[in-house]
Every structure is written in structure tokens, then in C-alpha cells.
Amino acid sequence: MPRDAKPIKVLIVDDHLAFAEALQIALDQEDDLKVIEVVTDGEAAVRAVERHKPDVVLLDATMPGMDGIETTRRIRSSEADTRVVVISGHEEELMMARAVQAGAHGYVQKSEGLSAVAESVRRASHGEPIHDEDELEEAMRRLRHRRSDEGEVAKRLDRLTPRELQILGCLADGMSTDHTAAELGMSPYTLRTHVQNVLTKLGVHSKMEAVLLAIRHGKIRPGIG
User: Fold this and answer.
1) Whether 37 contacts 64, CB under 8 Å
2) Is 76 helix (H, G, I), strand (E, B) or coil?
3) Phi/psi at 220 (nearest 5 deg)?
4) Among 15, 131, 125, which Cα is nearest to 67's?
5) Which CATH class for the 8-135 domain?
6) Nearest Cα to Cα of residue 86 among 34, 12, 139, 145
């Protein structure tokens, strides 16, 4: 690094403190990088960005509370000059697409090693691409396809009546068909008719599939109905 050049200021955000501190030690060995702070959650990251105005934020994708995607949005909306590189211990193409769509400059896996993380920080700081353009476009295409599918499922779930959701809630709590019918004051035949209507509306083949869809989209919560 030239003598008059300033090091790249890096903020590390990871709820696994041991990893974050190890990453700090490794990055501080690089002449052109300087870790200015380590924080362990999204809210603290937003405050640290306001204080330090870092060049690059290395941000864990999956933190409790405010996750890396929402934290990226918050940082990018308040500090447009700060670049975000999302890091994760999991290889997931859709996570890369979600991170970039939220405003991150790129995405890097922890398994790629410290040299790859350092190089990603440099590229982000200089505005250089981290990912192959074709790779990123394919990831974005898959994300759009996934969201289209999820949107269609949400529309189907919205067609369910309160009674049908009540039935799914009972089934989610592990009630048998007969127990559910008795609980809701209907005959087993009527219950089976309701269940078949649910399967038809959702385009699934089993009660389990219907229950899992309803839980995943927040229509029912086991233990509550």
C-alpha cells in the first residue's frame, strides 16, 4: 500500500464473537485493511455505521433479531457510501441474490477462507464486482422465480375460509381427524369434505403439505390454531 494511502475501514458484524474476533485479527494483518469495530447484531451495526462511516461492512447473513438482509437495507438507506459484503457459513445461491437485491455489493462464504474475504472487501471498496455477472444474473432469476411461486402460494392460502384455517390449526396441533371433528362440532364426513376443499384450493396432495404451507406463511401457529 502506498505510504499516503489510507487503509480501508472495515466494520465486522457477526453474532459468533469468536469468529468475528478471529476475522478481525486476520484482516488487521493486511496493510491496506483496518477493522474499526466488531459488533454482534444488526441494530448495533446500524449505530456503528453512523459513528464510524466505514468503507465496508462485513455482515453475517443469519443473525438473530434483525438479520443480515434487513440490516443491509438499513445501512444502505442511511449511508450510501458504505459498501456491504454479506458473509455466511452456508452456500446458498438465493442468499447471494437476496443480499444483492437488498443493496449489498456482494456475498462471500466463510468457507472460502480469509484471503477470499479480504479480497472481497477490497473489491467492494473499489467498486469492483465480486461475482461473475452470469452467476449473479442466474441467482437473481432463481430468486424472482422463487418469489413468484411463493406469491402464488400466498394467494391460494388467502382463499381458505376461517373454518378451513381452524381445521388446519387443529391438525397442526396433532389432533386426529375424529378428534378434530369432535372439537369443531362437525361430523367426520363434513370434516373430510373441508379437508378435501383445502387440498384442492392449495394444489397439494396431503394434509401434512397443507399444514406446512399454512405454518410457513404464518396463517396458523401450532399450539394456537
Assistant:
1) no
2) helix
3) -135, 160
4) 15
5) alpha beta
6) 12
Which stretches in the chain have pLDDT values below 70? Answer: 1-4, 90-94, 131-150, 223-225
So what CATH class is 156-216? mainly alpha
Q: Collapsing DSSP states into helix, strand and coil, what is residue 108? A: strand
- State pTM to two decimals: 0.62
**DSSP-based three-state secondary structure for 134:** helix
**pLDDT tens per residue, range 151-210:** 777 888 889 999 999 999 998 888 888 899 999 999 999 999 999 999 998 888 888 888
Q: Output DSSP code: residue 3.
A: T
**Domain boundary assignment for the chain:** 8-135, 156-216
Q: What angle do CA 73, 66, 117 make, to 5 degrees?
A: 65
**Going by C-beta distance under 8 Å and a sequence separation of 6 or more, which residues neighbour residue 137?**
none
Residues 6+ apart with CB under 8 A from 216: none
**What is the number of residues in the chain?**
225
